[in-house]
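User: Fold this; tokens only.

Assistant: Input:
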Amino acid sequence: MSIHLADLVRTIPDFPKAGIQFRDITTLLADGEGFRTLIDELAAIARPLDPDLVVGIEARGFILGAAIALAIGKGFVPVRKAGKLPGVTVGIDYVLEYGTDRLELHRGQVPNGSRVILVDDLIATGGTAIAAAQLLREQGADVLMALFAIDLPDLGGRAALEAEGVAARAILTFDGH
């Protein structure tokens, strides 16, 4: 099961900089059986929580989040980088390792009181997921859980997200950076 999925994740050394072992999920997504298994496992976690919406973080979170939403019969909402959405947006600025960034979603797309699941492909340091959860909470959403295909526990992101009060689960775990 997960051993098979882990075998489908390509590791690219020294990307985007020396010393980083980039975990590339696109090879898993390109494998029909692997992709279905991953979505089935994530949907099995999400379904009992009965969220109102599934929210995916740009960009690979869109792929996983939309597939999970379809599998559990819920709507999907994208959280995008600044300036990518055409309507009136709400956003949050957050700090990255080497600067700042901004996440946005359409105003009103996540109604006050919505129960949501947040989805992305990978959690490393957790900064983007924490910012997305904060943005959703500022809209009055209840973030039930954050789901990831991959966790890099050595970087502490899952622990940081859970310290912010957001339960988190991942299907695969890889050591290192």
